[in-house]
Design goal:
By secondary structure, this protein is α/β, with parallel strands linked by helices. The chain is built from 6 helices and 8 strands, in the order αββαβββααββαβα.
Length: 250
C-alpha cells in the first residue's frame, strides 16, 4: 500500500510538472515586450535622466543599484530589449524549460567548429535580470588564476585581489561555517546557500566518499577549487531570485 501511494504521488508530480512546463513553453513563445525599470524618484513624466543604462542584465542591474545607493536623487533609467520576468521565473528549476530560440534568449552561436562546421548555441538571457533569470542558479566565482591572467595581459583592476572585495560585498552566505571565512560576505543583497539534497542522498554519499579519499573541498569558492565540493546556489526559501530581485527590487 505504501509503495502504491508513493507511486501515485510521484505520478501526480510528473503530470503537474509536465503541465507547468507546457505553460512555460507557451509563455516563452508569446512574451516579447521590451521592459524598462523606473527607479524611485522617477515617474512616467520624467523626460531627462542622470544615467541611462542600456541592458538590464546581471551587470546592468548591479550598476543601476550601486548608482542609486550612491545618490538617491539621481534619476536612473534601466532599459532592456527583452521582456520583464513572469511569475514562473521564481520557480527554482525554470532552467529545465527550453528557452533556446525563444524571446527569452539572444540566440547567440559560436563560429563554425573547425572539424564539424557545426555552430554551438550559446544561451544568454534576453529578459530583465539577463541570464540570472534563466540559469541554473549555481554560484561560482571563477578561478582566481583567470582573473590574474587578465590583469597580467593588461586588464588593470581585474586581478583576483581587485575583484574579490566586490564578490564579498554582494554576498550573504547562509552556510554557518562559510560565514566565518574571510572569503565570503554576510551582509550583501545576494543570498547563497549550499545545494539542498532534496531528500535524495546521492550527493551526501559522493561527498562522504570524497572525504575518505582526501578529495573533499568544503568551499567551491574558497582558496582552491580542486576536489569535490557542495554546489553553492544563489537562491533562498526555495524560490528563485534573479539579480534584479536582489539588487534592484530589494
Amino acid at each position: 500500500m505504501a509503495l502504491d501511494i508513493s507511486f501515485r504521488a510521484a505520478l501526480t508530480f510528473v503530470v503537474l510538472f509536465a503541465s507547468r512546463t507546457t505553460h512555460w513553453m507557451t509563455e516563452l513563445k508569446t512574451h516579447d515586450i521590451p521592459a524598462r525599470e523606473i527607479f524611485p524618484g522617477n515617474d512616467s513624466t520624467t523626460k531627462t535622466y542622470d544615467f541611462i543604462i542600456v541592458g538590464a542584465g546581471t551587470a546592468g542591474c548591479v550598476v543601476a543599484s550601486r548608482l542609486a545607493q550612491n545618490n538617491p536623487d539621481w534619476k536612473i533609467l534601466l532599459l532592456e530589449a527583452g521582456s520583464s520576468e513572469e511569475f514562473s521565473h521564481s520557480f527554482p528549476f525554470k532552467h529545465v524549460a527550453k528557452i533556446a530560440k525563444t524571446p527569452l534568449d539572444w540566440n547567440f552561436t559560436t563560429l563554425p567548429l573547425p572539424y564539424s562546421g557545426v555552430k554551438d548555441h550559446i544561451e544568454a538571457g534576453r529578459v530583465i535580470g539577463g541570464s540570472s533569470s534563466t540559469n541554473a542558479m549555481v554560484y561560482i566565482r571563477g578561478n582566481p588564476e583567470d582573473f590574474d591572467g587578465w590583469a597580467r595581459n593588461g586588464a588593470t583592476g581585474w586581478s583576483w585581489a581587485d575583484v574579490l572585495p566586490y564578490f564579498i560585498k554582494s554576498e550573504n552566505n547562509n552556510n554557518p561555517e562559510l560565514r566565518k571565512s574571510k572569503l565570503h560576505g554576510t551582509s550583501g543583497p545576494m543570498h547563497t546557500i549550499d545545494n539542498p539534497n532534496g531528500g535524495i542522498h546521492l550527493q551526501d554519499l559522493l561527498l562522504a566518499a570524497a572525504k575518505e579519499d582526501g578529495f573533499y573541498n568544503a568551499d567551491s569558492n574558497g582558496e582552491s577549487q580542486l576536489g569535490w565540493a557542495p554546489i553553492q546556489r544563489s537562491y533562498t526559501t526555495k524560490m528563485r531570485k534573479n539579480i534584479r530581485g536582489y539588487f534592484v527590487a530589494s
